[in-house]
Amino acid sequence: MSEVTSPSLLHQLLTVTHALSQVEQVGAIFPVVLSTAQQGLQALAGAIFLPDPAQQRLERVAAQAERQDAPSIWQDGPIQTGSPASVSFMTHEAQYFPSKGDLARAYPHLEEQTGQTAPVASAVIPISSQDQVLGVLVLDFEEPHHFTAEEQLFLEILASLSGQVLVRLKMTAQLQHQERLLRSIVERSPTPIAVGTKDGQVSLVNDAYLELIGQSRAAFEKGQIDWRATTPPEFHALDTASVTRVLLEDATPTYEKMLQRPDGERREVQLTIMRYTADNDTAILGYFVDLTSQRAVEHALERHSELLEAQVQKRTREIQARDAELASFNLGISHDLRAPVRRIKSFAELLLRNADELPEKARTYIDYIGLSTERMTNLLDGLLSLSQASQAPLHKVPVDLGALVKASQTDTEMQYPDRPITWQIGPLPEVWGDAQSLERVLTNLLSNAAKYSQHSAEVCIRVWSERVPGGWAIKVTDQGVGFNDAYREQLFGLFQRLHAERDFQGTGVGLATVLRLISRHGGTVIAQNNPGDGATFGFVLPDHEA
What we know:
The chain is an alpha+beta fold. The protein has helices spanning 6-21, 29-41, 84-91, 102-106, 110-114, 149-188, 207-213, 217-221, 236-249, 292-353, 360-391, 401-415, 435-451, 510-520; strands spanning 45-51, 57-65, 77-78, 95-97, 121-129, 132-141, 193-196, 202-205, 254-260, 266-278, 281-290, 396-400, 421-425, 430-434, 459-468, 471-477, 524-529, 535-542. It contains 14 helices and 18 strands. A 6-stranded antiparallel β-sheet has the order 3-2-1-6-5-4, with helices on both faces. A 5-stranded antiparallel β-sheet has the order 8-7-11-10-9, sandwiched between helices. It has a 5-stranded mixed β-sheet with strand order 13-15-16-18-17.
């Protein structure tokens, strides 16, 4: 076999380099490479293997032989089988088998696995680029072939050229895919998008952008649209500064500007721009949000808000005047009715003193008058108390609820001296409020708990706190009679009672006072029935910041 000279191989490398530089499809690489390899080393046949997308198998993508009927030992197969092609693919190393039997001795199961006889001589070279193996080139010879250093270098350079072209075509395909994807995104997006060059020329727009600037697709295709022409002059400097930031700092600024339409109408927009680089070419992408309708809605809302605020202030003044009038009315009633009620009670007592000759029924009637006047007096006192709770100014300071509860405990025990009370007082927070008002609230709640536990085997009252979003919940639980959930909404109403007065005395003002005072603190009240085990009443106070 005649030896191939290095100048001949160098010439072929120069020729194949030029040929591969013209290739635009992956499939066109393989015939050029195989023909060059076979001619350079006078090989009988050649094949190229590439991995499948999952990198699990090597698949023969091209084969070339002097005799078309020549059987080949090189077949598709899993990469991990230990075949010569798989070994070169995984190790990045070329393998040369110059003499008959060398391949079979190196891979003793190869002939059995493929059902073919190994060629006399073979070369297996990885196709790689930048340390990444992309495939395998195989050459077969029908005579022994001593692979010189020049030939080995020739094959490895040829395989490297193939790898570089493969990478270039793959990158080109990816860029083309990205460009098609970008174009598709731009064209289909309902958001106005424009792509332009650094000098302000618009190269790609979607229909949403054309509608925004009032231009047609025909005008764009004729080159009649550019960035500056659609922008009023007073915004040119802002645009220039923003583009400079994008190019020098790789920033993504968002700012507001105006767009000028051909009919003179201006559209207020929010614009976000960013840099897009593809194939060493830099473009500027702009995403627009039309603020015109939004600004109109905002202005309408502002006008509506102003009108609403005026109405609220007017309504607030009316309510304050009505509250003041109602408070004055309540105060007047409590004072003006107290004197006649006292007189009725006094005359009833005088009648009893001088009623020796009155029948028993008449004496009973007089007793009823006395009881009724006493109840009327209590109701007037409650009405006056509620009026004061509604009108007295609040002096809010940090308040230690623990200290207030102790004072309320003492008041409650004095109200019910004949019934020992077991207290369970948990840790209580410091809150922001009016101390006098909060003490009235706690006294009402503790007194209620004791009152409605009168008929229980023992009186046990628990007071505790819970942290809730934005504030504190203070709760008082008793083991009394509880209440009917169906009437929960009536509990805090004025003069509302859910139990007969003969069972539990009271005027129905206590919880109404609690509601009024807690509402003035910006809080809410709590009422929870514990079936068979009393009830829980309490309130939620907001934090100082609220």
